[in-house]
Amino acid sequence: MDRISEVWHLVKLLREPGTRVVLTGQPGCGKTTLCQQVVAGARASGLQVGGVLAPEVRQAEHRVGYRVVDVSTGYEHPFARLRGPEPADGIPVGRYVLDPTGLAFARAALTEAQAGCQLIVIDEVGPLELAGGGLMPEVQTVLRGPASVLVVVRRGLLTEFLTRFLDQRFHIHEPASESRRRPSRAGRTPWHENTPVCSRGVCDPAPAAGGTPAASEEPASESRRR
Predict the structure, then answer these.
(1) Which domains are seen in the chain, by residue range?
(2) Residue 188: which pLDDT band, with cuts at 50, 70 and 90?
(3) What is the pTM of this model?
(4) What is the b/e burial string over 100-127, where b = at least 16 CB atoms within 10 angstroms of the residue's CB?
């Protein structure tokens, strides 16, 4: 699937009210870039879009932090920076220090998006959220609401995220570029952009680009009956 087809496949999916899509993959595989393209495509299709994006801040080809962007307004704020040798003000999260004012900015953007947006983007749910902090209160509220949701979760945290939301039905999508660079293992079904996964073990399969699910994309409940 080329990138244009991938973007419009996701836009078509997210145009259905209440759809939940998890965008997953390793750090640096293009999740935020794909989110930005889906936001543009969704707006072009007439949807009102809100939420937050967290693009990288780079210096001399090295990632040194993140900024947070309010999808509704385009305003942005510093969000996280690499930890230095000296103690720094902020919330330590792995190799980074989170800016408390950036976190407050992101929380406000997610709260405001619930006032009328048809699609809400959450980039991303990380270790801080899964520990109950960060944006988790807003994530929980958004997922209880009527809007469609596109949420970014790195692959190493995906299982933990799904177990936190057992009442939700999720489509799992991995950027096509990430899928192509990992060879499938012999004897296993390769993970690809249309694989249906759901936290309850039963999920309507994500349609292929042509709109018809492939045979390998049947609901988990059907495969267990045979």
Answers:
(1) 3-183 (3.40.50.300)
(2) very low
(3) 0.80
(4) eebbebbbebbeebbeebbbbbbbbbbe
